[in-house]
Amino acid sequence: MQKCRVGSTLSLSTTSSTSSDENRLRGNWTGRCDFLLSCIGYAVGLGNVWRFPYLCYRNGGGAFLIPYCIFLLLCGMPLFFMELSFGQFSSLSPISIWLISPMMKGLGYGMVIISGIVCVYYNIIITWTLYYMYLSVKQSVVPWATCGNKWNTIHCASNDDDDYFDFNETDHNGTGLGSIGASALQNATAMLRTSPSEEFWRRYVLQISDGIEDMGSVRWELFLCLCIAWILVFLCLCKGIKSSGKVVYFTATFPYVLLTILLVRGLMLPGAGTGIRFYLQPKWESLKSFKVWGDAATQIFYSVGPAWGGLITFASYNKFHNNCYRDAIVVPLINCGTSVFAGFVVFAILGYMSEITGMPIDKVVDKGPGLAFIVYPAAVATLPISPLWAFLFFFMLLLIGLDSQVCAALFSRSATVHQVG
Question: Max Cα separation, the chain?
Fold first, then answer.
């Protein structure tokens, strides 16, 4: 502990009379809101939009909020406060901070490696998002709205193809199939049916091959979007926390405006109320399952972000006497509130999809990329002025993803520079 305090004392002794930074070498946040919004942007990620609503539905609806809130209070907030205190006191990176216990320094390296992997993963998602944004405004109709395109198969069927399931109980030889035979044929055909948005995602955007032995060719459109994504990250980090701290004023706040717009639009659609009831209807018997409690704990750790190194990094740029206790309460509450709020947006649309397709909501619901790039685009494609709604949705995903990506990249950069320097 003595070494850590020495590092802290040295950082305080570098105060310059011409700068408000207590640490001239590493710098400090320009204002308290820079730090607070950066933490919010770091905690609120894509998992809040495409993972939490699905977990809530799968694990008992409104009943899932009970273990979720319990783990927030028992694990999320205390760990959040511990990491903020740790980083703020030492003013060191997640690797150098282990001067307090050198044998644990491998934890710091592990954090850097994991964050580096997440940076690559998140930037791929940003790449897809940029590509969808471009395609949304390229034409008057979004390209995943219809079949008949060069990437579609014979199994593609849009919601307008009402005759797709029209079966005659007589086969081509005039032999009666009977109700059982017709029903079996209908079920078999339904299993083969794929939506235009799914085929667009798998066969046009990803162009998934038959196996790993078939590498395929470079998608130059996606390559260009990937380059743009990395350029955006560079522009946000070119001046360290001085630039990233200003970017979050937009990227951490504007997604809430877009979420509100999408929620209002979703609530105006038929079936929205059914979707929201399906989302929040409590199933109390699910609380007897250990899996429900495990999913709640996992989501808290995944969302709040302790042990990744980001919180330590952000707090290390704080001034020594910043009230991190207050921040450790505000940020987790905003993060979890965002998850619940995003669930209303998602399930309003899923209720609408169930209404227009005639499928049960539990057959429509999905998580992860399937929700963001298949289900939601399919719903948006049926709305008037679909390019506008598609652009707003993917722009929201871009801002949420860019926030988390910039934070992870800042952490990796800070730890590497501090260690090498």
Answer: 95
